[in-house]
Structures are given as C-alpha cells and as structure tokens.
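Hello K.,

You asked for the raw outputs rather than the summary table, so here they are, unedited. I folded two proteins back to back in the same session to keep the settings identical. This is the first:
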Amino acid sequence: MGFAVPWMLLGLASIAVPVLLHLVERRHLRGRGFPSVMFVRRLEARREKRKTLRDRPLLLLRCLALVFATLAFAGPYVLSRQEAPARVVEHTDRVYLVDASHSMRLGGAWRRAVTAAGNDIDAMGADDRAAIVAFDEEPRIVFAMSADRAGMKATLRDLQPGYGGTGYGAALSAAQALLGDSEAPRREIVLVSDLAMTGAGRPPVVAADLSLRLLPAHRDVEPGAVVTDVGWRAGVDSQDGSRTFFVSVRGSGLDAPAEALVHVTVDGYAVAAHRVSLPVDDVVTFDVDAVTGDDGAARVTVDARLADGGEPGRFFFVAAPRRPVDVLLVGPGETAATGLFVEGALSLATDPPAALTRRTPDSLGVAEMADAEVVVLAGVDPSSAPLPSLLSGHLSRGRGLMVFGGAGFRSWPDDLADALPVTLGPDEIQTARAAGGIFLSADHPWTRSLERALGRDELDVDVHRLRRIVPADERHVLARHADGAPAVVAGDGTSGRVILFATGLEATWSSLARHEGFAPLMIESVRYLAGRSPVPAYFRTRSRVDLRAHLLDVARAGGADAAAPIAGELVLTAPDGRRRTFGDGQRVALLDTPGIHALRESTAGGLAAALAVNVDPAELLGAPLDAETFLAGVSRPSPGVAVNGGAAREPPPRLELWWWMLAAALGLFIAEALLSNRSGGTGGPERREAGAS
C-alpha cells in the first residue's frame, strides 16, 4: 500500500482535537429548591475533580471519522495483483556485449576479454540466463538468451575480432532490445571492451532500470606510426606522367618526438622512402612524386614504422583513372566574359578534371561535337541553326547539355522536347523583378551534390532578369527564385541529361558568375551531366559498397562509354585470395578485410577495377578510456522511458482507495451526528443524572 500525497498523513494529529474537547468540557448543572440550611453546621470540605473521558463511543466515532478523512486526502492506493508463478526465482538476465573491433587485436586485449567474460559466466547463478552480442560498428547476436554456460564459453572461444571500428551506441541499443521483453527481476548489460576512444563520439544511452557493468580488457599501448590519410594533390601533375601524392602520418603512444620511416609503393614498385620526425600529438604531411600509368590509375601502398622498430602501419590507396571531362562551351564570342567565368570555374575541377573548348555557333559541326561529353550554351539561342540537330544528336548518345538564359536565348527547339519538355512564357524577359536568389527545392542527384559542395541549399545571388520557363511537369523544377518562379529545370532520360537556367551569366541579368558558389555550381553540374561520379580512393572496413555502381564509375573515369548497366556476374577477390561471386540481383558487398580488392566482370574482357580498404586509423591511435570516464559519459534517462527502441517497463496498475476512505469518513460523521442528537449532546446522560440528584 502507498500514498500519492504522503505528507497529508500529518493530518492524523487532528484526532487529538475531539479528545481535548471531551476533557475540557464544562458541565452546567441545574439547581433545585431546598429548605433553609441555617441550622446545618458548615463543614470545610476540599473538592477534587478528576476529569475523565465521557461518551467514549461518540469520541471513537469522531476520531475514526478524522482518521479516514485524512487518509482520503493522502491518496492511498495498492498495486493490482498480477499473475505470478507459484515460486518467485530471483534470477538475472544479462547480455554480454563483446567488443570485436580491430583495436581488440592489439596489445593482448582480446585474450584478456575472453578470459574476463569466461570467468564472469562461471560466476552466474543457477537460474541466470545470458546472451552474447559481438559488435564493431554494427552489433550481431552470436548467442541467444539461454542458461547454457558451456555454449556461451564455446561461442567466446570461436569468436575472433575483425577489422571494423567501435560503435558503443548501436551495441547498447541492441542489448536493450534483447532485454526489453525480459521478465527477470534483474536485467544487466555487461560490456567487455578495451574502451577505445574511436567509439566515444556520441554519448551512449542506457535506460535507468538496466544495470550496466564493465569488464575492461586493457590493451598494452606500444609506440608506433599510423598512416592517417593518403591522396593526390590537385593540379600539380607533371608533364612526364608523374602525380604528386600526399601522405599523413601520426605517432601513437609517444612520450617524446620520434623518427619514422615511410615507404611508398606504386603498382608494386618502391618509389619513395622518407624519414620524418613525428611530434607527440600532431600529424606530419609530406608529398611524394610517383609515376603512374598513362591514364593516371595507380595502386598505392604506404608503410610507416618507427625507426627503432615496431609493427608497421599500412595504408592502401587506389588512384582512379583521370580522363578529363570534355566540355564544349558555345557562346557569342571566344573572348566573351561569360566564357571566361565558365573556364575559370571549371579549371578548379579535380575529380574528375575538365578539359574546356570554346566555340561560336557558326563554327560548330559534327566533328566539333564528337568528343564533347557536356555542351554548355551561354548567351546563345539553342533554336538557331545548326544547333537543334547537333544538340539532338549529342543527347541521343547519352551526353549532357547545360543552357543559361540570357539576351540571346529566345526559344526552346522542338528537337529537344523529348529531353526536356518546357515552353517559354509570353514575356521574353521579366524585368525589374525582385526574384532574389536561387533556392534548391527538389530531391535530385544534382541538388544533393550541390548542397554537399555548398554546405547550404541556396545561392544568395542578385537576379535582375530571368526568363519565364513553364515545364510540362513540376518534377522537372530543381530550384526556384524567392518569388516562386522556376530558376533551374532539368530533364533526365534516355535522351541524355539537360539542365536549363532561367537567368543568364551577364552582369545585367544576374551576379551568378561572380558569386563564390559559381565554381561548385559548374563543377557539380558538369559532373552530373557527364555521369562522372567521384571515385572513392579508399573505403573503411565494414563498408557496404555497390559493386556495379563502383565499376561503372571507374569505367567512366577512364573514358569508357559505360552508359548501360552491367549485366552478369561480378567477381570480388580479397587480398587473402578469397573470391566471392555476385549475381545479377546482387549489388552490395561488405568489405571486411583491409588491403586492395580486385573487382571484375566474370566475362572475358569485361570491366575491372580495384578497391582499397583500410582500418579506421582511430582504432590505432591514443590511449583507451578508463572505466570511470566511460560511465560518466553514459546517459541514464528516467525509469520507464523507452531507450533506442527498447521496450519500456511500465509500473503495474494501481487500485485507488481514496474514494472508499472518503465514503467511510462521511458515514462516520453522519453516525456521530445521529448519536450526538440522540444523547442530547456531549455529556447528556450525566447532565440528566445531575439534575435529578
């Protein structure tokens, strides 16, 4: 039994009131006539009056009425009786979260983890149950909830750490989901980990009604050198075919600066050896010149170790082919300012680079259009001869077209209606409009890539003039002006890709060409129109990769006409020689082994590519967290609140008793009133007896 407002029980002291009233009440006796007492001798007598409780039944009713009234205001309740087994067994359900990330391979951490977990399993109670969840970035249940201790220990012996990073949040969520349906009196999560800092980015959350216990598996931190990143320098390739790579190295576990030896291998050939000084807590970056193939593709391996020995840190990197995107800029003149802006913006493109050619409409022919992957029209009318037929043939080959409005743009040719069905409004130029900037308004590959490049979803440019564009379908609108008018429309189909801007690049039309976002706008637009997605130089272990998309991206980067999707099987060969075959409906592979993987079509002469996979350098850097620091960062919400999808434990329903207490108090007050009236008030019988004497 409990009380909703327990402090109201102080009102029980009120039962002293009727008791005091009964004790201090004064009796008023009525006199009677008597003959003269003059002949009666006066005697001195001392009267002692001892006050006693009278009308005790009436006093009891009043006290009980006050007690029940006070209890009613305190809000008494009892928990509803729930079905329970005949015998309540105080047992524990627990989940062992076993860290199987790459950091557990180091410094004897895995051996200590298995020993600690095994000893804890041996100490379980006879009726205790447990499950085992192994985790890196993702958790996986390796042993379901059971009381089989021998099975648990056998699972631990067979378990091995992988090469992934550490994700405490996802692991704790999985453990809470397992314990969410448990009816055990005690529920516990046991984390077996080296507490690597790589998984400490977001504070993990554990429900307050779950116990969290740590079994730290400390690892010995030895000094070493860790390669944190490798890439190529943009725009510094030499004429002899060499490319400049940068290499970033950081010391791990250093108490003082140390010397490190770094060896760079390209396509199996040693190309450079560097001796660098590593500070205690900083990164050293240096450049390496390496000759690659004619297309710029290369497989790079970087080994780094301290000069006085130790295990080498290794990093893998694949430089994709770097065939530039051929861009043909068609404008009113080869010296027009709009062309200079476009050329300057595209000169910053690196992945892939852009090769720009400028032409006027009257100098165009089939030969000039043959190699162009993307055609850009700036300040010219696409309806003027010979552009409609040339552009139609260009788009039929799956190429790209970008058109800017301007003084020379007057109509949209019928030959391009299949690629982008739009018409121009009745007003050729909308003047003196407060159109405002360009706001991205659609979920589209072009808008997503531009948002990433800009870091925002708008270009705050001044638009003085724009051409009214009416698309056949609102789905073609990718961006709008502040007044709602379409700013960018696009077509994406079998007839090639088209992007049409409502405003021009001339200063009288807009400030777009002078805006800081113009270069990212041009680079992302050309990349999208050419179908040339950036090719990742490397992936992290436990990454999921769309193999068919990656193979197409590499092929396009090398200049292959790979517009059609890949059909047939793909073969992925891991660095240790393991082969996996992926059929027509299989696209995604989990890359779980560091090194360079080979990917190819199963047919002879098919496409081929390489994928570099690296362990997260954070798994190798820095000292692990201590238990107190880790627990201090764990968030503990209130009991009964669901955490990360885990089932919340609701308290059992309560049966409220205040109504019954209040009814009893009212009944007692009514009974007290009736009894008091019947006896003529408090002390009534005694008063009548006194009057009769």
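The second followed immediately with the same parameters:
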Amino acid sequence: MEKSSEKYTTWACAALVGVLTLLHFVSLESDPPMHFIGHGQAQLTYPYHLTFSARNSILHGDWNPYDYHRWDVFKNSLVSGFSYRVFSVAGVSRLTANLSAVLLHLGGLALFAFGLLKWRSKLEVWLTLCVLMLNTTLFFYGRLPFLENGLIFLSGLTFWIFSRYYHKVWGLISCGVVIALATLAGKLFGLLLLAPAIVTIVYIYRRNSLRYVSYVLAGLAIGIGLYVIIFYGGSFAVMLSYYREQTTGLYGLPPGLLSLSNFLIMIFTFGGESGLIQFSPFLFVLSAISVVGVFLSFNVTSPHKSEMIPIVFCLGWLIIGALGLSPFLYRPIRYTLFLILPSSALVGYFVKQALDGPLRFELNRKWFSLGACFILFWHLYTQVWMIFSPVFEKFKSGSEFLPKSALIAFVTVGALYIWLRRPRRISSRISLTFIGAIILPALFWQGQYFASGLTSSGHYLQRYNKYLTEFIAKDAVISGPYAPALTIDNDLRGVIYSFGLTNIEKNFFERFPVTHIVADVSNMKRARADFPQLKSAKLLARMPVRNATIDLYRVANTGTALTIFEEAVILLSRGQGDSAVLAFDQFLAENPENLYGQLYRSASLFATGRIEESIASFERIAKSNSDDYMVHSFCGGYFSAKYQDTGISRYKEIADRHLKIVKDMSPALVK
C-alpha cells in the first residue's frame, strides 16, 4: 500500500473511531436498547447491583448500611470502586453510573490499542479499533456498569503490560498480578487470560519458557493473596460462597464437562444462542475468516518474531477463552464481550495484510493447519445456521445441525487441501473486494442498531425512579432484583436480594426492614414460594420497560406509614371508587405530572360508574402521550381486564387499539 494511501486510510479510520467514541457518551441515562429483547433481563437488573454499595456510601455514609455481606464481591469489584470515584465528583445518578462504565470500557480499549501499537503499524491499530467500536453489542454493553467492563479494562492492562514488558521479570510478575485482579475484581473467568500469556511465552522462549511462566504464576499468587487480605481480611469464605452459588449452585456442573458429546455440542453452539453472533454476523464471519487466514499464512512454530507477539497472544486469548467459557450452561452475551478484543485485533491484522499486498497461503504443519481449519469452519457453519434459527430454539437447532455442518466443513477443508497443495497468492484487489463485500453490509447492519439503540430506547427506568419517590415514603426500604435499578436516580434505601437463589435466607424479612418489593411476575412467583409472608403483599403499580413489567409491592405489616398514593390504590382495589378519586386528586395536587396518578384516577372514575367520563379521561391521557408505551400498555391491559370481566365488545376494541400501538413500539411487549 502506498504511503499516501495508507496515511489517508489511517486518518479516515481515526475519524470514525473519534465519532464512535463520542457516541458512547450520547444519552447515557436512557434505557438499554430494545433490540436485546429476548436475551434476558440482565441489562435491566444487574448493572446497578455493582454500583449499589458505592451509591450507599455517597448518599448514606455507609457502603453496607444493613451489614449484609452476601454481596461483598460486588462492593469489592473494580466497577464499584471506580463508580465511587465518579460519584464523589459528579454525584449519584444513572448517568454517572453509566459514565463510570464508559470510562472503564474505553480505558480498556485504549490500553489494548497501545499494547498493539508496540509491535503493529498505526493503520492496523486503527483498523482494530474500528472493528471493536463498530460492534454494537460491545458498544451498548459498554455503556452499563457490568463487571465485564471492569474485566475489559483489566484485560487491556494485562495485554499492554505483556506486550511492552514481557522481556522483564517485573513485567511478567506485574502481568500475573493484573490477571489476579481481572479474576477477582473483574470477572472470575478473567483467569483465562493466564492461558494466552503462557502460550505466548512458549512461542517466545520455547524450551526455556518454564522459568518465565513461573514469574507470571508468582505474580498471580501474589495478586490473589494481597486481594484477599486487603478486601476480605484473609478469609475466602464470602467470596467462595458467592462464586459457588452463582456457578454450580444455580446451574449445576458444566454440561460440557459431563461427556465428550456434550463438550462438542457446547463448543460448537457457543456464541450463537447468547446472541453474540446475531447482532454482528458480518463481523463474526470476517473474524472467523481472519483466524483461518492467520493459520494459513503464519507458522506459529517457526522462530518467533517480535512483531507477531500480540497476534499470538490474541489468537491464544480468543481460542482458549472460547474453549474455557463454552462448557457452561449459563453463557449470557455479556460473558463473551472480552473475546471481541482479540478477534478484532486478528481482523485488523488480516485486513492490513491484504492492504499491503498479495496474501500468501500455505499449509504450514499440514495436518495441524487442516485440523484447525476444520474446527473453525465447523463452528462457523453452525453459527451461521443458528443466526437464522428462532430466538428460543437456537441451541437446539445448532445441536441438531452439527452433523451437517461437520460434513460441510469437511468438504470445505478437502477443497482447501486440494487448492493449497502448493502455496497460493491472492492479489490485494481480490482479497479487498471480498473483505469489502463483508464490511459494507456490516456497516449498514451495525448502523441500524446504533440508530435504534440511541434514539428509540426511552427513559422509562429514570421516570420510574422519580415515581417511586412519589409512590412510597422516604423511610421505605426496597428489595428485589430491580431495586438497584429503581434507586440509582433517587435516595431511597434498599437491600439487594435476588429470588430463586440456592441458599434461601428464610429469615431475610426478619433481619432487614424491607417495606417494598420490585420484581417481575416470574420473580414474584418464586418470592412467594420462598417467603409465604409475601403472599399478602399488595400490588401498587405495574411499570413496563422493554419486554419486562416491573411490579411494585408493599410488604404487609411493616409499620411504615401509608402514603396518599398507597391509600388511594388500596381504596381502588376495594371498589371504593369515590374515595379513591378524592385520594388521587390529593395525590395529583402534589404530583401533577405523575402519569400513574392520572391513569389510576381514570380507573377510579370507572369504579364509581362514571364510565364515559373514565373512558374520555383515559383517551385524553393517551392522546397527550401518544408515543408513550407505558400509557398505552396500562390502557390496553386495563380494558382487556374489563372485557374479560364483562364481555362488552367496546372494551375489547379500546384494548386492541392500545395494544396494537404497544406492539408497534416493541413487539415483545405483547405476546
């Protein structure tokens, strides 16, 4: 590639990365994107568990106000500590919590890029960053304070230290210490970073590698020891208890380790059922082809070249990382995020090679190369099949397709063997045309996700945070899986608890002064099974967001005084419509913008027999909030219930009209 062309291409890539970096900070307080519907509720529940202790410290002067140590792993994470620093400077809110995630996330990507820059060209590094930042899954998860963003930062730091200081004893020891932090302050599977470090050391030092590996292991031991002493007083008990419960306790032994057939199924379906491939299929295909290209153009067993150190590290990181995560039954999309870093580096390497001139392919270590390519193609074809499978049938569909994808992979490798019986060269024009045919649709595909995710998500969680302070008393204590998400924008107190855990604390409601629960229907069903006293909990409000409905319950016999809103809801539930109307009028006099107060008042009018006035009130609210699916969801659900009770077709017509609007806004909200 000519120097002038390379310079302009570098500038173009840098400009794109700059724009994508700025997009990370756009509308940070908005809800998670709609397009992740069907892939779990972690985005709605989990992120603010990690910032909950830091929030408590800033707002209430105590990291753990109720002395509840079950979640100390969250408190002692990098995300928690860093969010505390951000909260100290900028205050506590959803925006600042998400800002802490973005800063960690971008910091990790920057460290990763600087690690590459030690040995690779500037253009290759910018290409890598383009691929990284164009991945909308990485982008949108990078805007929420997940543990995985702490892991991305520590992974980037590990890579940077290794790339620059692998030849120094203190560098290898430091690398081991950071891997320990990635494991304990990031995510447990951060330990997988040890494998690519060892593989690369073997690539560099060959027969003399044992001594250098021992330095990394020593650093790992030092890091683990210091972390446990500093944060757990030398006791592993709380930490091990949490990890045991969250792994084998909830999901049993990893199915991929129970038999060879299970192992193969779990490996070759890895990524497809979690949605990792669904949101960036073109970039995934390019990543797979890049890995095959690396195997066919570079002999890992030849004497080491310094410039190939980051490529070997990334190759080991990607392959061993995928193997390490694949055996587990629970493999949410966020677990795979840190694998996008090495795969993007391999894409950057492959594209840069194509830009520099003809690509040369040959079968180095013939049977090893063919075997590796067979496995990669087998995985690729299985994933492509799973992309087009229904959301909840991807795992089953992929498992059943394995024999066919293996046959297709075998034929592909056979053709590859025939074609590469002698070394081949592919001109830059052909290879770049092929790469462009993948990248151009990828830009369009990812652009749609960027546009919808940044403009159509809404701010419903932020609104519910405000409503909660109007619904319940200042001295209320909230618990349930959505409690951290519904208190990040207010100063209400709470206690983290997730229903359905293996270690059920039967005395939980005796130990902690919980007055209210926020949970979805399935979680509340489990809660009532585990805690019979919740059977008498009173439903106060149903708050739809994305494809979930968060229910607010008041726990019976808590001693906390009823608010006007709670009294009004109870009056309405008893059929005392006239009294409920007066109570909601009083509530709205203090909170005139509260849409729930307006909707409940309309329902109270219906309960008094003022049907036409009630319907007119509902329609007036809906017309004034025509693009608000919370309002339309309430109206649709309310009149559906009235139709079920009375059989009056007019109510069904009203319900269907509102539910159609809801479905148009988000199909998953209406089943």
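The radius of gyration is 28 Å.

Happy to rerun anything if the numbers look odd on your end.

Regards,
P.
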